[in-house]
Amino acid sequence: MLKTERNAQANMLYREMSPEDFHGIIKLATKVHGEGYMDEVVLRQWYKKGVYHNINASFVAYCDNLLVGFRITYAQQQWMIDQWCTPESWSVSPEHVCYFKCNTVDENYRGFGVGSQLLSLAIEAAKKQGSLAGVSHLWRQSPGNSAVKYFSKCGGQLIKNHPERWNELSQEGYVCPVCDNDCHCVAAEMIINF
Questions:
Q1: Is the model's pLDDT at 1 over the cut of 50?
Q2: Smaller CB count within 10 Å for the chain: N or C?
């Protein structure tokens, strides 16, 4: 049942992600991003990349004990800069850049500020870890290009568009909600300076 904005915000609980959240995270990720996006092995690896100097930069959101959102963030120096990154265009040295891996909000709870609050919490944790900026790849084919719009509203600046960013993953079992198992979606590489 859809909550009103006031009730949803009043009943929202945000906290650091923990392994007890994994089942709900995988279920929500599959619903939003498609089958094969993550499993427990992958999620455990992603989760570990977010803890640096005993500070966790990944968060979850619950409303009335229902997981309605999560944000996975890799700490600085705990992620690989690959061919989909353009560090020469970043305004910060790469060793001080965290990676915003995934932000997911249940469709019934979008528009209530859940994604923005999760990002805000991740930024504060990343700053404590020593990061000066965060990079992400936003899904251009999200409904209404909402991912890029939301990240831009939070201060994100476009670095570069990367066509075919997730194609290799789709060949390995990821089922894109738009392209099925042959993903041709575009990733917008964006950065937020803290």
A1: no
A2: N
CA distances from 136 to 2, 11, 71, 108, 145 (A): 29, 29, 12, 24, 15
Q: Is residue 98 within 8 Å of 56, Cβ to Cβ? A: no
Distance CA 31, CA 182 (A): 18
Tokens for 56?
């966790």
Q: Which helix (H) or strand (E) holds 179?
A: none
Asked if 67 and 31 count as a contact pair (C-beta separation under 8 A), the reply is no
Q: Which of 41, 43, 52 is nearest to 78 (CA)?
A: 52
**Domain 5-193 indexed as CATH 3.40.630.30:** yes
CA distance 62 to 148: 24
- pLDDT at residue 73 tops 50: yes
Q: What is the pTM of this model?
A: 0.87
Of residues 148 and 176, more confidence is placed in 148
